[in-house]
Design goal:
alpha+beta, 6-stranded mixed sheet, 5-stranded antiparallel sheet, 15 strands, elongated
Length: about 300
């Protein structure tokens, strides 16, 4: 029985709750579920209300995503039986951690221009992908080092153990090669959605796999981002006649020198930008001549009279 306590320490109240309000497993799918209603105290009594509509990246969405993990702990509180760690699949725990990281790290906003509290124009620039980058790895047939992804996975099964590869093709001779993604991994260790993506050659999963630094390190390849990205600036970006603050967001892990981004965004030559940096008109907390793939800010000051 689920007991509810008054906040002032009064005796517990044991209301009769619908089955959808209790955590547990779905009778149809045997999957973990979370309560479909919320118990709230109103004037000394308790009432059942529905939770608010989930936000794409808000706390309510996070609770629903983590519900399958926390459901075991909630069941143990109600039944008195301790939850066993092995009851939580590893893929489900990894998905919960990923959702938590999305909540902590807000998504970058679209390219826009506005003003800061001091009235100085503030712009947001976006580094976006236009195509998949090339793969830099030596071909065993022609010894060239440029390959392209085919956009397809190969999944082989050996009993309950799966091997997953991402397929590539040499840009010079057409030799087919493979990037090892998973090796002899038990089928129950896979996130069902991700496994389905491997089977269906999901384009977003292809990009995610290709960008994974651990996979790149294990397979000894690097990415060539030539002609595979673009800089998006707001249409109403003001001209540099007064001080302007700019924040550059990276949607993809492309290493590029900030000097190049600034020159392209302000429609200036690389030499003009470097002179502005030397004169102190362009300032930033990072080294603008060194490659980066992380979000950074810089400020542009007008010409001194």
């Amino acid at each position: 029985m689920l007991s509810l306590f008054h906040t002032d320490g009064a005796r517990p109240v044991a209301p009769s709750l619908p089955a959808t309000c209790l955590p547990g497993r779905s009778p149809a799918t045997n999957a973990h579920v979370v309560p479909a209603c919320v118990v709230r105290r109103t004037s000394g009594s308790f009432a059942l209300t529905k939770p608010p509509a989930p936000n794409r990246h808000g706390p309510t969405r996070l609770v629903s995503e983590l519900g399958a993990v926390t459901g075991l702990a909630m069941n143990s509180t109600i039944s008195g039986t301790p939850a066993r760690p092995k009851d939580v699949p590893l893929w489900l725990l990894a998905k919960a951690v990923s959702r938590l990281q999305q909540l902590i790290t807000p998504l970058p906003s679209e390219a826009a221009a506005h003003s800061d509290p001091r009235g100085n124009p503030t712009a947001t620039w976006q580094i976006q992908r236009t195509s998949l980058p090339s793969v830099r790895r030596t071909c065993p047939d022609c010894t060239t080092s440029v390959s392209v992804t085919t956009g397809k996975f190969r999944v082989n099964a050996n009993g309950k153990l799966l091997d997953v590869w991402l397929l590539t093709r040499c840009a010079h001779c057409g030799h087919n090669a493979r990037i090892k993604v998973h090796h002899r991994t038990h089928v129950q260790s896979f996130d069902p959605e991700k496994l389905s993506g491997y089977m269906d050659n999901d384009p977003e999963l292809v990009a995610e796999t290709l960008f994974d630094p651990l996979i790149a390190r294990r397979n000894h390849y690097t990415l060539d981002w030539t002609d595979a990205w673009k800089l998006t600036v707001p249409e109403n970006q003001p001209v540099v006649d007064w001080r302007m603050n700019v924040q550059v967001h990276f949607d993809i892990p492309v290493p590029v020198r900030p000097v190049r981004i600034i020159a392209q965004g302000l429609q200036l030559s690389r030499g003009e930008v470097e002179r502005m940096i030397t004169d102190g008109r362009i300032t930033s907390a990072i080294e603008l001549s060194r490659k980066t793939s992380s979000t950074f800010d810089f400020s542009v000051a007008p010409n001194s009279p």
